[in-house]
Write a structure and sequence with these properties.
The complex is a heterotrimer. Chain A is mainly α. Helix content of chain A is 70%, strand content 0%. Chain A starts with a helix and ends in a 5-residue tail after the last helix. Chain B is mainly alpha-helical. Helix content of chain B is 74%, strand content 0%. In chain B, helix 1 runs antiparallel to helix 12 and helix 5 packs across helix 7. By secondary structure, chain C is of the alpha/beta class. In chain C, 32% of the residues lie in helices and 21% in strands. In chain C, the strands form two sheets. An eight-stranded mixed sheet of chain C has the order 6-7-8-3-9-10-12-11, sandwiched between helices. Chain C has a four-stranded antiparallel sheet with strand order 2-1-4-5, covered by helices on one side. The chains are: A mainly alpha, B mainly alpha, C alpha/beta. Chains in contact: A-B, A-C, B-C. Chains A and B meet through helix 1, helix 6, helix 7, helix 10 and helix 12 of A and helix 1, helix 5, helix 6, helix 7 and helix 9 of B.
């Protein structure tokens, strides 16, 4: 499984300039009003077809996740919607994606499954970036023993390869609950991902802050008497946000895939939660006779991850000042 | 260089202790019955519970437990699973297989990924460049278990070209397809990294100097450019090897490979977690050590780092 | 086996006139094609340098001085840079018409170059001895041992202390001034006839600057090379240069021997540059500046490119590009409609 940590190491390696941040450029050679890094990036992004394709795909998936009723009349979350007599039937006019082992309508389940997958992806990234970002700012800005301590703690978590760490955490907690609610299961998986990946964002943020701190414009702000808070929020943050935004975007897809992998292993989401990972896991044993049960959720999963990777790609290119 | 090595080694120790302590705590010391759900569908046999309590001092306070746990490990005692088999034996059997698989995967990753990356880095915007960019995009996005199942189904079941599952002895030939599956995700990153590294370095000042010295293009690219561009590539390769040695759990699970990952996979599915802690501890140790070696390698490759 | 071209290699075309200059740039045009537009970076630049003389090319950033040098060496970034006109003649042969292989042979042995930032211009992963030595190994066929020895000799020549030991050091282990000496040493390895120094001292502090300049002057004398010194710093150039060409917006606006230029500049731009040099005896007074900014090379002002900033600009300056013409028939030249007036004031 593509380790999300490695995914981001690659992105960071591809854009070392982003990690150092830097002062926003002044007006370009055409003498227009200075736009700054974000303005330039947006102008660039607007023109790229890939950006719009990725954004539309993600939009569609978010809509599916938010309002599955729009796409199918069958609700697989209601008990009794499964029809065992239809077990493993191939796609037909009634059920576009066929039926799975339990007799569930695969299409309906795929549609409803989007919600769990998407929620896990987005929330994991958000919390991991928030926590990691905060830790990174503190470590980078204050330096000294605070930096040492926080970095060591981060290293401990980074030392745990993602899948192994997830296995340990989830199998420990899974043992404790036999009757688990959907909310608890989802929260557990999100927390696991957050716990294992926050150090990455902390590192990136710390790196940006440390080099941003030395920048002339920060010294200038200090000399003018700006308070610490103001320096951090008004001056450092806008420039240090870029690499985190890129990594975070890329990682939404990676975490959705990670959830699928964990569910596939049986330690992530499971009944009563429906997600693409759960569906793929369930369909594991039937692959020889009924590949459709796995094919469709797998395709949706791949497309979702693909759209985030594409988005992350174009955003990174747009934000990279070296390519100007 | 020596001082740098020493420093990195010293940094390793607290991280290692912290990580293994974390694992230990998670598995054995959470509130509730530590033995619940660890021996398969049933409860753990009483004999095992007694043995574990005695041998591993479960009644001691947590820090003391942990210290004794580490002490045991340093003496080569990694514990036993609830069936009485020594974890170390199980691992000793499984590891050579995982190593074979890891080696194959890294070779594929390097050969395909670096070649594609270098070729497209030198000449961007051509047909090859677009092909590589798009295909890497897909390779990155397809989850590894999808690739695994796809190939297993297509090559093993539908076309009958390979055996769908790998036999216990795991000969090299049977590991080729699983190796490819493992490599598929990573080689995409490798190709992109190589491409970016080359594309960035080709504009570097020292390349301009090399040309200005009247060196041939072969030498400028082959010696000056590559030597610099390959530094991040080699380090990524090393890191990949490190994580692969930790066992490619999913791939080994799909192809039923009796390596470290496969063993872990089956243990989890069967809820047999007594084996999990010692195995994961060793794997983390290996992972951290390999990371350290890669760091040192970086110091060898880039002289600027050595004297920090 | 060597692939070094010496000046004795006969030109492939018909016999060249005997009074050929060593290196001559003739009406060179270079443009940069970007997605935002086409920037006309060099617009008809001509200058020359002979053995044993130093030509200083002076100008602000964006004047095109470095790009001209890159075009001479054939290391222009193509794309986006393209030579769109003119000739660059070395011993009478137009290098722009040569094959890449032929041009390669001229590099280092015929014309060599020293760059501004020695830290980024030297390869960080190879020792200094390796980088200097490889020139001897690859182009003169020397053995490894010999090449390291020669490298040590060169480091000695540029006055780096402990040269024998320093051969094994990496670029980042040297100080700024020492690194620049290393670059100079490397450029002299094949005994070039022309050395182009592109802002060799800009990144260094003042005392080191003077040392490097002295070194360059001395080396030029000893080897009877032609030296093209590219800089924006008038102060640095006064001691070392024989002639000065002042560039602005891709054109030469004034060309003169050094004494006359400083004594009586004949172009408003040169005048402005000289007047803006801070002087100790004018302490306490406001600094003079040239108002305005260098032009956007994608939209060079019509007529004389300097006219928006020129205190003497008249109507004709906005409509007619002033050609570079000799002043009063002498050896000085200026591209200003009012050059003669400037020349005759005191």
């Amino acid at each position: 499984m593509s380790d999300p940590v490695l995914a981001t190491a690659d992105a960071a390696a591809e854009s070392p300039s982003l990690v150092t941040g830097g002062a926003p450029p002044t007006g370009g050679p055409t003498g227009e009003k200075p736009r700054g890094l974000w303005g330039d990036a947006w102008r660039d992004l607007r023109r790229k077809t890939l950006f719009w394709i990725a954004l539309s795909l993600i939009g569609i998936i978010v809509v599916i996740a938010a309002a599955p009723q729009l796409f199918t009349s069958v609700n697989p979350t209601i008990a009794g919607s499964a029809d065992l007599s239809k077990s493993l039937e191939p796609p037909s006019a009634d059920a576009w994606f066929g039926y799975d082992f339990q007799g569930n309508d695969v299409y309906a389940r795929t549609i409803y499954g989007a919600r769990a997958s998407v929620i896990v992806g987005f929330l994991s990234v958000t919390f991991a970036a928030l926590i990691g970002g905060l830790v990174g700012i503190l470590a980078g800005f204050y330096g000294g023993w605070i930096d040492g301590l926080l970095s060591r703690i981060g290293d401990v978590f980074l030392g745990l390869p993602f899948v192994l760490g997830a296995i340990v955490i989830l199998s420990s907690f899974a043992g404790a609950q036999s009757e688990a609610s959907a909310t608890w299961i989802i929260t557990l998986v999100i927390s696991t991902i957050v716990v294992l990946s926050w150090p990455l964002y902390a590192r990136i943020m710390r790196s940006s802050v440390v080099s941003g701190k030395q920048a002339d414009y920060v010294q200038a702000a200090r000399a003018l008497g700006a308070s610490t808070g103001r320096i951090i929020f008004r001056h450092l943050l806008p420039n240090c946000l870029a690499p985190i935004v890129v990594i975070a975007t890329l990682n939404v897809g990676a975490y959705i895939a990670a959830e699928a992998a964990l569910s596939f292993l049986g330690i992530g989401l499971r009944s009563p939660v429906v997600s693409w990972g759960v569906m793929i896991s369930d369909a594991r044993n039937a692959i020889r006779t009924a590949p459709h049960a796995m094919l469709f959720p797998a395709t949706f999963l791949t497309l979702t991850v693909l759209s985030f990777v594409m988005l992350g790609d174009v955003v990174r290119e747009a934000l990279d000042p070296k390519l100007r | 260089m020596g001082r740098y090595t020493l420093r990195r080694l010293l940094q390793l120790v607290p991280v290692l202790l912290g990580t293994t302590f974390l694992i230990y705590w998670l598995v054995w010391s959470l509130p509730g019955d530590p033995f619940a759900g660890k021996c398969g569908e049933r409860d753990c046999p009483a004999s095992y519970v007694d043995m574990m309590r005695g041998r591993y001092n479960m009644d001691d306070p947590l820090p003391l437990q942990y210290v004794k746990f580490v002490g045991n490990m340093l003496q080569g005692d990694f514990g036993v699973d609830f069936r009485g088999r020594a974890v170390l034996d199980t691992m000793a059997q499984a590891w050579p297989i995982t190593l074979k698989l890891a080696l194959l995967a890294v070779i594929f990753e390097a050969a395909i990924g670096i070649t594609a990356g270098v070729l497209t880095g030198l000449r961007r915007g051509g047909f090859l460049d677009n092909v590589v960019l798009i295909s890497t995009l897909f390779l990155i996005s397809i989850p590894i278990f999808v690739t695994g199942f796809l190939l297993q189904y297509a090559l093993g079941i539908k076309l009958g070209l390979i055996k769908p599952t790998v036999s216990a002895a795991a000969p090299w030939g049977e590991l080729v397809v699983p190796g490819l599956v493992l490599a598929s995700g990573q080689l995409a990153y490798m190709a992109r990294l190589a491409r970016t590294s080359i594309a960035e370095n080709i504009r570097a000042d020292y390349v301009r100097t090399a040309v200005a010295k009247g060196l041939t293009r072969q030498r400028v690219v082959g010696i000056h450019l590559l030597r610099n561009s390959m530094i991040p590539v080699v380090t990524l390769l090393g890191l990949d090897l490190g994580s692969l040695m930790g066992g490619a759990i999913i791939t080994e699970g799909i192809f039923n490979i009796q390596g470290v990952g496969g063993t872990l996979f089956r243990s989890i599915i069967q809820q047999d977690s007594t084996i999990v802690v010692p195995m994961v501890t060793v794997l983390v140790l290996v992972y951290l050590l390999v990371n350290l070696l890669v760091d040192l390698l970086y110091g060898v490759l880039d002289p600027r780092i050595r004297y920090e | 086996m060597t692939d070094v071209i010496t000046s004795n290699t006969p030109a492939p075309e018909a016999a060249v006139p005997p009074s050929t200059r060593l290196l001559e740039v003739d009406k060179l045009h270079v443009e940069f094609r970007t997605r935002d537009g086409v920037a006309k970076v060099i617009n008809g630049v001509s200058y020359h340098v002979d053995s044993g003389e130093t030509l200083a090319v002076l100008g602000e950033s964006g004047s095109g001085k470095s790009v001209t040098a890159q075009a001479i060496m054939g290391i222009l970034d193509t794309p986006p840079g393209f030579v769109t006109g003119g000739e660059i003649r070395f011993h009478g042969r137009d290098m722009l018409k040569l094959t890449e292989e032929e041009r390669r042979k001229i590099r280092g042995s015929g014309i060599a170059m020293v760059f501004q930032d020695a830290l980024s211009s030297l390869n960080p992963v190879f020792t200094v001895g390796f980088q200097i030595g490889e020139v001897f190994r690859k182009r003169l066929g020397m053995s490894r041992k010999e090449s390291y020895q020669k490298a040590g000799d060169l480091l000695d020549l540029v006055k780096i202390p402990n040269a024998r030991q320093r051969v094994k050091a990496y670029p980042h282990e040297f100080s700024g001034g020492m690194r620049q000496r290393v670059m100079i040493a490397m450029s002299l390895a094949l005994d070039p006839e022309v050395l182009i120094a592109d802002e060799p001292t800009t990144a260094l502090d003042v005392t080191v600057q003077a040392q490097i300049m002295d070194l360059l002057a001395e080396l030029r004398r000893e080897r009877n090379m032609g030296l093209i010194l590219i800089t924006h710093d008038l102060g640095v150039v006064a001691d070392v240069a024989d002639r000065i060409a002042v560039m602005y917006a891709g054109r030469i606006v004034e060309e003169s021997d050094v004494f006359e230029l400083y004594r009586k500049p004949c172009h408003p731009y040169t005048l402005g540059l000289l007047e803006s040099i801070p002087r100790l005896d004018l302490k306490g007074q406001e600094l003079n500046t040239i108002k305005g900014l260098p032009p956007n090379l994608m939209r060079i002002p019509s007529g004389c490119a300097f006219n928006p900033r020129c205190p003497m600009a008249q109507e004709i300056c906005r409509t007619d590009i002033p050609p570079l013409l000799p002043i009063n028939g002498g050896t000085r030249a200026s591209a200003c409609h009012f050059a003669e007036e400037l020349a005759s004031r005191d």
